[in-house]
Amino acid sequence: MEVVRMTNEHNTAPAVETRGLAFAYPAGSGEPAFEISWPDLRIDQGAFCVVVGSTGSGKTTLLRSLKPELVPAGAYRGWARVLGRVASGEGVRGEQAFTALESAQSIGFVMQDPAAQIVCDTVWHELAFGLENVGMPQNEMRRRVAEVAHFFGIEPWVRKKTEDLSGGQKQIVNLASVLALRPRVLLLDEPTAQLDPNAVKQFLFLLGRVNRELGITVVVATHSPEDVEAYATQRIDLDASGAPAPRELAEAALAPRWEARAAACAHADAAIRVRDAHFRFDRREPWVLRGIDLNIARGCVHALVGGNGCGKTTLLRCLAGVLKPQRGHIDNALRYSQALLPQDPKALFVCDSVREELMEWSTRCGYGQREAVAMARRFGLESLGVRHPYDLSGGQQQKLALAKLLLANPEVLFLDEPTKGLDPASCADFSRTVRELADEGKTIVFVTHDLDFALVTADFVSMPFDGEIACTEPVQAFFANNIVYRPNAESRLFGEIAAEGGRA
User: Fold this and answer.
1) Has domain 2-237 been given CATH number 3.30.750.24?
2) Does the predicted TM-score (pTM) go above 0.70?
3) CATH class of 245-337+410-499
4) Which of 158, 256, 275, 448 is least buried, going by the fewest C-beta atoms within 10 A?
5) What's the pLDDT tens digit per position in 92-143?
6) Where does the ABC transporter domain start and stop, copy by copy (predicted)?
7) Buried b vs exposed e over 143-166: b needs ≥16 C-beta within 10 Å?
């Protein structure tokens, strides 16, 4: 692990400190096997600290170990202190641990999924929810809500329903509601993973203001340190990670494939035809989709990109037949052999172990133990067979869900944010898997905010806007002609792709 510290060295009271911290998931019997351990850490007060690591390296567990109410069930060795008090671990003799009230007011936490943290029906109530729970007087509560709404510029939203907000707006509301409690330390677990590129920039700009102007210590776990490098004062690498590479290197590695795929897709029949499709969730509400026309070519990889709330997921669910358009029609020639990966992979989990999840559909789909073991090995899950799916990291859950779907051997695969929670190496592996499936004749449609992944994986890109399809173009033409939705100039994913000569 590498720790680069650029904060004031004379500050002797760290915001976060760990010594010998290790964690083991609950064991059936005997001594626990400590599966995650971290080097000793020190994060100074006022720092903007970025925590980077591969999928399963323990980023989320580390952050949860710093928030007493969210400490995962299991065994600890060593200890973690936040603001001089024990947050988790074996504890230190004579030191006082956090009470629930003290933790709520001192340590803020923002989760990866914007919708998962929203609990109230309106923005105003969401901003006030935490304040109500700590028993704050009404007058002070109104003042706090007004302050954070003004700071973040969200006064026009305060009477809105939270369900009507975009993903980026929900995450800003989450941040504002946490800051209404005036914490001294703010922990964020992949907070931009489900945001579109513009929402990412807006959220990180506001987070930078929180750090600089309010003096709050910020600790962010991320797979994309390049997004936050302009704000970071400290970086912690939990393991060795790949080096970034220029976009041009990845494009050069993929150029032969792009040429071959363009020729193949140009002569492919349509697997899915959409004509004048309209959809809304209630007849009193505006159309989410109106007049959608789209062809998905058989055996091709088709990406849907666009801003939060533009209807990408709704369109994907209509293509999969989960939602039915009220007007127009969708002809899916492969509807009898399809699979859908939802945004929340836990929606697919019904068993008590990874091994049982992979075998759940074996009788129905005609595969056996050998195929399940091979698929687990393919996604790096072979050592996690007895683990409960809910005890996996977010990236590991995503891998398990993908592995389970692929065992069903669908002809068309619908994926909603498939790289959420995956590190660059895992993204490169999954990109290769998707392209191999397309070479085998499978059709893949995915929704994503990960433009780097879209560039190296898709054959075609469509951009929904205002309920319609604004454009559909081959992947190279789409990104060459777009001034807003552009991949990074360089990224670790491009490094992985270039290192494997375009085969990743």
Assistant:
1) no
2) yes
3) alpha beta
4) 256
5) 555 677 888 888 889 999 988 888 899 999 999 999 999 999 999 999 999 9
6) 16-266, 272-491
7) ebbeebbebbebeebbebebeebb
